[in-house]
UniProtKB/TrEMBL annotation:
Chain spans, region Disordered: 1-49, 760-786
UniProt keywords, alphabetically: Cytoplasm, Cytoskeleton, Microtubule
Upper lineage: Eukaryota, Fungi, Dikarya, Ascomycota, Pezizomycotina
Domain Gamma tubulin complex component protein N-terminal: 94-430
Protein name as catalogued: Spindle pole body component
Cited InterPro entries: GCP (IPR007259), GCP_C (IPR040457), GCP_C_sf (IPR042241), GCP_N (IPR041470)
Domain Gamma tubulin complex component C-terminal: 435-834
Basic and acidic residues bias (residue ranges): 23-36
Family classification: Belongs to the TUBGCP family.
Keyword presence, Cytoplasm: yes
Amino acid sequence: MTRSGRNADPLSAGSDNLKSRPRNVESRATRGDSRAAEQPPPAPWEPAASLLSHTSAPLASRVSITPVASSAPQALQPRPLAELSLNAQEAAMIEDLLFVFMGFEGQYIRFAKGYNPYEERDRLSGPQWRILPGLDPSLLDLTQSMLRMASHYTALETFVDVQSREEFGAVNHALCASIRRYLHEYLVMVVQLETQFLNDKNFTLQQLNVHILPSSHLMAHMYGLALELLKRNALLDDDTDESSDSSDDDFDHIIEQLRDGGDLVPGNMTGKKICKGGVVLGLITKRLESLSGDPSARVLLTTLLRDASRPYMAMLNEWLHHGSINDPHSEFLIKEQKSIRRERLEQDYTDEYWERRYTIRDHDVPPQLEAVKDKVLLAGKYLNVVRECGGVDVSRKMQDVPTSFDDSRFLENVSNAYAHANGSLMQLLLTTHELPARLRSLKHYFFLDPSDYFNYFLELGTSELRKPVKVVNTGKLQSLLDLVLRQPGSIVCLDKFKEDVKVEMNEITLLKSLQRVVNITGIEQGEALQLTSNQPLEGDKNATGFTSLQLDYTVPFPVSLVISRKTIWRYQALFRYLLSLRYLETQLSVTWYTHASGTAWTHRSSHRMLEIWKRRVWTLRARMLVFVQQLLYFCTAEVIEPNWQKLMNTLRDIENNCAGVTTPDGTSTPRVSYSKKPHTVDGLMQEHVDFLDTCLKECMLTNSKLLRIHSKLMQTCSIFATYTNWLSRELEKSDPDLTGNTKPGNMTDDQWRQFLVMRGERKQQQATSSKDGGGDTNMDSDKNPETRMNELFEVIRKWESNFSRHLQILLDALNHYAATETVVLLSLCARLSTANQGTEYAGLRSEEEGHGHGGGP
């Protein structure tokens, strides 16, 4: 396009146009004098700027929006473009574009009719422009192509004002600050173009287009990013995908606000998911990957990502190096629930403090941290524990740490922080708080290793433990236990943690509590034990102190992270099981003593069938004792002890790896582990839980079928031991040698004298009970001796059948589960099979009542 017809100075040409406009207005006013005399003069158009109210965005523009040009009076409308020359049109377009580039309407370039500048949604989308009619076609297309950059600028300016509000978080604020710098450079470019337009008479629209191409390219990329963020924030699109994390964060925020005394008013509650934090960084990263072939876009997005990630990196470094979270806008990848406090560890069977106090916002993790998010979580959790124990100087400033994602030391910083936090907490647990000694202490008390002190305690507390559980004096038992634990000569008297052992009573039977938690993973997920607190089990009405005795153990923080309430529950389950076996063994041993020392049992009767019956009783008692002793030996020597040694070996390996290497400046740093399996605090916690789970499983306490069979066998043995005195009385009544007053020939005078004394005392007791309303004690004495003998054989036959049948069912089940699940059960199966040899269920007896087996008391 030539400029022969254009004024020498484009500014003077523009001035001539401006001067012609008042004359045009004056001529129109002269022609309309007659009508003006008839009508009142129009109200003067006096637009004025005003200050808007403050928002939470401190740098947002507070100047009111200028009125649209279409609202100006007709007298102020410019001269039509069709009346201007080509050069004047070009100068007018350049002048208007310089205004439009800054978001203002020009004389000939106006907002489109569908655009409302007072609506924030329209400003965020960017205005559509229209050019007044009459512009030369050679200028029209070029002008319209440059208007896109003006729309992008207006949208970005509004985007920065909106996204800088407080609720959008620090990452959005940093992104807006970075965009604001680009907009400032953009305005500097507009000023430079205006200067060139005023000073260069040869400045054309084509030259203007060439100068703005790089900026237009950058503005388009920034506008595309802003548009995607606005759609995620539902500011341009109503269809939003709110994740559950959003509602969780809102709920936590509401709880914290109520706890701090705040009010639940609508303005304090967010109604939609805000795109912030790691999601913003992820969007920038995704666009950077997709536009990596465009050099200018790559430079722009790299700069935006670097600037936007700085506050996120500040939070990350604070978490990695101090173990604390400074996240007022809930945008960090780690979510903290302040309502869960460590004080709840003493009653918390679900380990909420460790599992739920700090969690990962899976949907808000930046791509740069996706591969190391678990390390980030654990590093901060470990350091947080050390910090709460006074092991981290939070006042110390962090030095030489990466401040953005594009730093080459970024991943190395995470790994080093994780290694340091893990080593610090491991050192704290193993040395300062003596975790290995704590575990050995638990073994002494809960696994009865050694058991000498506990046998002494049971002897001292027998009178109390025989009472019904509701009347047992727990304080007295605690005093007895303290006395026993301080008895010189025992290993436990040297235990520095013996003060932490407490005696308590649990009215719920072991079988019921185990059946309620048949699958041990239910404890880990906090399901079964949580249900127990809401729906309490009914206690055993016949429970005594022996069956309800339970130990508890107090563990301070941070050792309570490893020896948590869920692990204490496992220790208690194993303890009650071992105690039940020991108590049943004691009962059967007392039965053996009765059989070995009682006159009715040791006397060789002249009645042959009675001697056969006694031998059957002795054999059954011996089989029961073998069953209980073999089961107890298997649980202690073949299950608990080998698994305990594995746990201790793991602890020794960890101690060796964590043994500090002293540096020249006197400080100690953890030794780097080169083993294939790195030792971490979480790994140690899991090893401890796995050890207990394995013991429970191999002791048959996690299988409902084995539990039921085992319970029936234990109940049979217990009833047999309990009815020993009744059997002794029935035996005495059935023996013709002992019913009269004549001394049998095979009994010494001392034995006969002692027997008479005991018989007299027993008759006196029966007479007293009969006088008190105990019934007729002579009913049994009228029975036929043959009838009495048949009844005795029927009783022992039922006991033999019941015990043998359930033992064989147990053996069959053990064989099955040894082949499918736990091979160690084969050893127990081989041991227990000896207790069933020679019975009909072992295939070696065909008659109900055969000859008596050998083996006396």
